[in-house]
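Attaching the record inline, Q. Sequence:
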Amino acid sequence: MSVFSFSSGFLHPLGGLDHLLAMFAVGLLAAQLGGRALWLVPVAFVVMMIGGAALGSAAIDLPGVEFAIALSIVVIALPVALALNMPAVLAILLVGVCAVFHGHAHGAELPDDAGMTAYMAGFMVATGLIHVGGIGLALLMKGAPTRAGAAVVGATGFLFLVA
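Structure, as predicted:
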């Protein structure tokens, strides 16, 4: 595994506020739902992100990727901000669809000299760590502070949509 490839993949989700906020919101949502959703929601995101990365690296066009990434911030943060107790299966479906677009962006931006496996491993690890950060913060804050944080995340996503 090339360290450069891994580090490139690891740094990709950290380099864009849109990716960072959406992945953080996944952690907030998982923590709000609790139970098995605490791990199923983030795992669903990572699995579907891999599929999206395969599409992106194969240069298979997916229309509206940047718009979908910005929208994903809003649609993942909104249920947390509004304290909606959505079924875990709906949350898994929601984050899975969003993850395809995030993965596509990661795959489409694969550096020419990066190994795909190492690059994917890097962005999977970074994504998991961002999810864990969202989960940890939500579990520490609980209730209204988590909802307020999600509202800020969602509002920032809305700014990406209109900018």
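Residues 3-162 form one domain. The longest helix spans residues 116-141.

More tomorrow.
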